[in-house]
Design goal:
Shape of chain A: globular
Oligomer: heterodimer
Helix content of chain A: over 70%
CATH topology of the largest domain in chain A: Sodium/glucose cotransporter
Number of strands of chain A: 0
Largest sheet of chain B: none
Order of helices and strands of chain A: HHHHHHHHHHHHHHHHHHHHHHH
Helix content of chain B: 55-70%
Largest sheet of chain A: none
CATH class of the largest domain in chain A: Mainly Alpha
Number of helices of chain B: 1
Distance between the termini of chain B: 59 Å
CATH architecture of the largest domain in chain A: Up-down Bundle
Chain lengths: 568, 44
């Protein structure tokens, strides 16, 4: 990072925070602080929803995934439009008309207090763990890129997020998100243009796309099906729909965004914007990763992209042999890629087929050496099972992008972290105050009291997230487990809301026990099978619904217990 | 805490009804999947 990069980074971050705080003026009542007084326009909510969902690791990891595995990850989002249509038609009007601050407040109106508290606690537990990880995951990568200690990057990002979230509430969060999404879009477009500019003169954009396709990196749709394959058309359409129904229908970090809408229509439009824009956006990010792959066909990539781990294995006696094989395989692959481009220009099919075969052999050799180098990291005392996927994009950015643009892309990573994290902290504070504090600790206090309590709760969750991010570094392989926490709980919450909206006869006790059984089913599936986590949501949801219906119809006493105040 | 205000439910700004908007989004999804499939086939 050079001085101009620092200027761009600091100016961008300062502008985002200042603008968010400026737009949050007047958040001096609790309904304005938590729900912006229900005044937000659709486009602000839409970008805020998108920003909250897109954490930094989305950009770092997604591009790396396209580099190594191609674009099939985009299928994960095919269920999103379906989920958005269902939520717009059912959940959005019901939540608005119920005049609730949180999704779980509605559950007490519909069922009873124990269902509400169970759902609230599940959310606080799951999202609380996730909030720390949202800050920690990009901090690891940024620490390596910037050469800072992890504690410093988590503290800087945490301090900025906590400041504007505590001071400005949801308005500051939403308007900062809008700015952050604009920075993210700008940074990504510039990154793609730069990749094209850096390609050799003899390789056109059309050649680059052709080469990426030949290397299997443009596999946007795969129609084969297996239960443990996370990304194919069917798991995307079915598993993805359930996941996004859970996320946008039952997770307060998303529900709170669209509850700020000044009308039901504005809330619907914000969600439908995401339904339409999200797939192209993910496609675009993956496409950047595929083009970075093409760039590295002609510029030699490091043996592994993690600088510190590369330095670690360079001291091993095996490294010299690996490096020689790597250099040779790279040269073969580069020559084959250039020959493919030339044969394509000459429309020489026989040469094209022969050079493609040469390319495949060289690619296979390069991957083998790369895989051996990653294994060597574990042998040399590094992390066992180490992969460098998350370091590919930022390594490219810092090595090849022009001065100023590096600062902008690092700002994108900071912005994405801050937007995802502020939404989480804000929603955690809202549930803690509305569903726990106001309901069980102090009822009937003044508006000012709850406003002050909300600010303190926001500060508490912000500090908690930063502290948890600090501890995450010592958790080793548990980090992987923590990342899957969301999918372990969403199915249960979704089942609860499906019962609330669809099955009029089902009451609180049946739902409560259905949730307990559903959670046990998901945890058992995770512990004893190799079913992909994308399927936990439909499984959990189905078990909750079937159990609650069974209790309702087999033990009809529950049907006669006092229902909540709202119909399904 | 103050009770939240009632918010209006208006017609969409285009296509007349929400049902038509939802159908439009569903058609869009089909088109996107078809486009992505053709893209994959074209560059396989």
């Amino acid at each position: 990072m050079r001085p101009l990069d620092w200027i761009v980074l600091v100016t961008t971050l300062f502008s985002i925070v200042a603008y968010g705080l400026y737009r949050s003026r007047g958040s001096n009542t609790v309904d304005r602080y938590l729900l912006a007084g229900k005044t937000m326009p659709w486009y602000a909510m839409a970008l805020s929803i998108m920003a909250t969902q897109a954490s930094a690791i989305t950009f770092i990891s997604t591009t790396g995934q396209a580099y190594t595995d191609g674009m099939r990850f985009v299928q994960f989002y095919f269920g999103l439009p379906i989920a958005m249509i269902i939520i717009c038609a059912t959940v959005v009007p019901v939540f608005h008309r119920a005049k609730v601050y949180t999704a779980y407040e509605y559950l007490e109106k519909r069922f009873d207090s124990k269902t509400r508290i169970l759902a609230s606690l599940i959310f606080l537990f799951q999202r609380g763990l996730s909030a720390g990880m949202t800050i920690y995951a990009p901090a690891i990568v940024l620490s390596i890129i910037l050469g800072w200690p992890e504690r410093m990057t988590t503290s800087i990002m945490g301090a900025i997020v906590v400041t504007y979230t505590v001071l400005g509430g949801i308005k500051a969060v939403t308007w900062s998100d809008v700015q952050q999404m604009c920075v993210i879009f700008l940074g990504l477009i510039i990154a793609l243009v730069t990749v094209f500019v850096l390609l050799p003169n003899s390789v056109s954009i059309s050649d680059a796309v052709y080469l990426a396709g030949s290397a299997g990196r443009l596999n946007a749709v795969t129609t084969n099906f297996t239960w443990n394959d996370r990304f194919n058309l069917w798991s995307g359409l079915f598993g993805g729909t359930f996941l996004f129904l859970s996320y946008f229908g039952c997770d307060q970090s998303q529900v709170q965004r669209y509850l700020t809408g000044k009308s039901i229509s504005e809330s619907r439009l914000s969600l439908l914007f995401n339904a339409v824009a999200k797939i192209p956006m993910q496609f675009f990010i993956l496409f950047i990763g595929a083009m970075v792959f093409v760039f590295y066909l002609f510029a030699q990539p490091p043996v592994i992209f993690h600088r510190a781990e590369l330095a670690r294995i360079q001291t091993r006696p095996e490294y010299a042999g690996l490096e020689q094989r790597y250099n040779r395989a790279f040269e073969h692959r580069r020559d084959a890629a250039l020959a493919i481009a030339q044969a394509r220009h000459a429309s020489d099919d026989a040469t094209l087929e022969r050079t493609r075969q040469e390319y495949r052999v060289a690619e296979s050799e390069l991957n083998e050496v790369h895989s051996e180098a990653q294994t060597l990291v574990g042998v040399a005392g590094g992390e066992k099972g180490f992969t460098d996927t998350n370091y590919i994009f930022l390594s490219f950015v810092t090595r090849y992008l022009p001065v100023g643009i590096v600062g902008l892309v690092i700002a994108v990573i900071f912005a994405a972290t801050m937007s995802a994290s502020s939404g989480e902290i804000n929603s955690l504070a809202t549930v803690a105050i509305v569903d726990i504090y106001r309901r069980y600790v102090k009822q009937g206090a003044s508006d000012h009291h709850y406003l002050v309590a909300s600010r303190w709760a926001t500060l508490f969750w912000g500090v908690y997230a930063v502290l948890f991010a600090g501890l995450a570094g010592r958790m080793g392989s548990l980090i992987v487990a923590v990342n899957k926490i969301g999918s372990l709980f969403y199915g249960t919450l979704l089942g609860c809301f499906v019962l609330a909206f669809v099955f009029r006869r089902v009451r609180g006790t049946a739902t409560f026990f259905g949730m307990l059984v559903g959670e046990a089913a998901i945890l058992s599936t995770a512990a004893f099978t190799d079913v992909s986590w994308l399927w936990y949501n439909p499984i959990g949801c189905a078990v909750v619904v079937i159990t609650a219906l069974g209790i309702t119809y087999l033990l009809p006493g529950d049907a006669s217990t006092a229902p909540g105040t709202l119909p399904a | 805490m103050p009770e939240l205000r009632e918010v209006p439910d208006e017609a969409p700004p285009f296509l007349g009804t929400w049902k038509r908007v939802y159908i439009g989004v569903a058609i869009y999804l089909i088109a996107v999947i078809a486009g992505a499939y053709l893209f994959t086939r074209a560059y396989r």
